[in-house]
Each structure stands twice: as C-alpha cells, then as structure tokens.
Structure of PGG domain-containing protein:
Amino acid sequence: MQWEIKWYKFVKKSMPPQFFPRYNLKHETPKEIFINTHKALTKEGGEWLVKTSESCSVVAALVATVAFATSSTIPGGADQNTGIPLLLNKPAFHAFAISSLVALCFSITALVFFLLILTSRCQEKDFAMDLPRKLLLGLTSLFVSITSIVISFCDGHVFILSDNLKHVAYPLYAALCFPIAFFAIAQLSLYFDLVWAI
C-alpha cells in the first residue's frame, strides 16, 4: 500500500495541476478512484498491522511487567540502618540497575507505539509514512527492551552464583543471546523494507 501511495503521488506531481480536480464519466476524482481501487489492499494491510501490533504489544506488556518488578528490586538487599544497597560498589549492580530501567522505558515506549497503531484508522494516507514509522519505532523499542531485560537478568543472576560456578554460567548467558539474534534476523527484512520505504 505504501508503494502504491508513492506511485500515486509521483503521478500526481507529474500531471498538470488542473488535471486532478476533474471528474471522469462516473463523476469521480482521481483520488476517489485510487481509494476505491485500493480498498482491499488497505483492509489487508490494516489487518496485518493490527495482528502484528497485538502480538507485539502483548510481548511489550510482559517485558514492562518484568522490568518494573526487577527495577524495583535490589539484588542482595539493602542495609537495615542506612537503606543503601549492600552490593552498590559492584559493577554488575550498576549494569543491573541501568539495564532494568532501560528495559522498562523501552517496553513502555514500544507499548505506546503499538497502541497508537491499534487505535489508528488505517486509512490509505496513513500507510505512506505514519503507520510504517510507528511500526519501525515500536519494533526497535521492543527489541531494545528485550535485550535490556536479558542483560538485567544476567547481571542479577551473577550475584546468586558462587565464584566457582560463574565460569559455567557465562556460556549460558551467551546462549541467551541466540533468541534475541534470531528475532533480529527474522525482522531484518521488515526493517529494511520499512527504512527504505520511509
């Protein structure tokens, strides 16, 4: 639909300005003809966007829930007298705190973009820039939030393991990157299409 709109705009620019307000024998303008001939494509594109946004918004909501729970949790607890976290001086604690906050922010951002798509009217003009841009930003935010929540989990999990088990856990942490890499590779063609079209 996006390419059809671009083609329509190209044709419109290449024609004399007085041509487009004119009517055909059925008393239709070129814009009305375009809208009528692309109703099925608009409906199909809108349904695909709604399904994609619904699926991604469920994942974003789950990530936001987990990120909220982890961002309000202090690994190792706090000092009873001062309230200062006991593991504050460890680098993994700072990485945990920042990654859980990043996951929370980006998952909520992704959720907002997907809700904007779900509440959109999905008209033919929205497919030119508005909906693809929202989808691109939503998918990017979702990817960042998933990556951040995995980093947060790994940083928080380091505190549970004893020193002699940490060398065993690092390869498992690296294996957690495979689902994220698979998700990124699976969405790469969609990313390129969206960026090229926008």
The helical segments are 2-14, 30-37, 39-71, 91-118, 130-158, 166-175, 177-197. The chain has a mean pLDDT of 81.
